[in-house]
Design goal:
With about 350 residues, the chain is α/β, with parallel strands linked by helices. It is built from 13 helices and seven strands.
């Protein structure tokens, strides 16, 4: 069997063995019979089941990297998989023997689906928490749980106010290492172009939603003003849009647009359509006074069904391994690592 990660030490060998075990269990899992909601089942099959090796491989690397950086033994680790959905990290974390594993997602359907998967393969995750970061941190406090690691895969690019996310963790979970991966790699030219095109597509829909909300909230406004306000409030959720419109009603001054590049978010909930952020902006949002921040390159999948894709992935992975800075430019995803600064 192929390696999920380089075999460097006892931790990597442990993760390799459990990753192989998880792969075998999931390959024969009758997912259609578990009773998952249709959209959760479709996501699991499309994003994980069809690329199962890569899903587990990314989880293996996240666990190895974050546990190694924590300088703690596996059996000491309290880890939360934030925004876990129906991925593979939370199950693999428990299988390698982490002291406590906490699953989180903001929707009950995802939580229930995750439980069904874990229970079906005999993995007993310690805690399942539903909610956003604030309610999740409150529940952790109520249960007297202090995380050593808070990790996520393809989550931080969707969080509405990332500065509030990191500030809340720094306040409520001051010892936690926050180790995240995201495919929104601003430094990869191909990734940036892809995201710009995505943003243009989604902005067409979100602009209509903002226009509809503003017209309903302030029906006395002229159509041209509604259109202008809808355009200028790109990147805002409904509460901020309402405040902006109310301010215009009293001042008659149009707002300045947010400096967010091509990015856009769903106004109904503030979820970004994959917010692609330069490193210097990440440093401001995370707050370098509280965290030591580093950015590391991910790696390409080499288990596609087409051989030429795998060959290209292997070549690019060699390039990534030779030089971190060059690797950032060609990696399909990056790690955003926030290690709490010494007091």
């Amino acid at each position: 069997m192929d390696l999920f990660l380089p075999q460097k030490d006892q931790l990597s060998r442990l993760i390799q063995g459990k990753a192989e075990e998880l792969l075998k269990k999931l390959q024969v899992l009758p997912v259609e019979q578990l009773g998952m909601p249709d959209y959760c089942l479709a996501y699991f099959k499309g994003s994980h089941f069809k690329r199962l090796f890569f899903s587990i491989e990314t989880s293996a690397h996240l666990l190895y990297n974050s546990i190694s950086l924590s300088k703690k033994q596996v059996q000491e680790i309290v880890l939360m998989d934030y925004g876990a959905g129906v991925g593979t990290l939370y199950t693999l974390a428990k299988m390698i023997g982490c002291h406590k594993v906490i699953y989180n997602d903001h929707l009950a359907d995802w939580k229930r689906s995750a439980q069904l998967i874990a229970e079906s393969i005999g993995v007993n995750v310690d805690e399942y928490i539903t909610g956003d970061i604030d309610s999740t941190l409150e529940e952790l406090s109520a249960k007297d749980l202090q995380c050593d690691i808070i990790t996520s895969r393809n989550v931080i690019e969707h969080i509405y106010k990332l500065e509030d996310f990191y500030a809340a963790i720094a306040h409520k979970q001051p010892k936690a290492l926050v180790y995240s991966s995201t495919t929104a790699n601003y430094n990869n030219p191909g990734s940036r172009i892809k995201h710009i095109l995505w943003h243009r597509k989604w902005e067409k829909e979100y602009l209509k939603e903002r226009n509809s909300f503003i017209a309903g909230h302030a029906p006395q406004l002229e159509t041209s003003i509604v259109v202008s306000l809808a355009t200028l409030t790109r990147g805002m959720a409904i509460p901020e849009i309402k405040k902006t419109v109310d301010l215009y009603m009293t001042s008659h001054q149009l707002p300045k647009p947010l400096s967010i590049g091509s990015n856009t978010c769903d106004p109904s909930n503030g979820v970004w359509a994959e917010h692609i952020i330069p490193f210097n902006e990440y440093r401001k949002l995370i707050d370098e006074r509280k965290y030591n921040i580093q950015f590391l390159p991910g790696f390409w999948d080499t288990h596609y069904s087409k051989g030429w894709k795998n060959l290209m992935g292997k070549v690019l992975n060699v390039v990534i391994g030779l030089n971190k800075n060059v690797g950032i430019l060609v990696a399909p995803f990056i790690y955003v690592v926030a290690e709490r600064s010494p007091e």
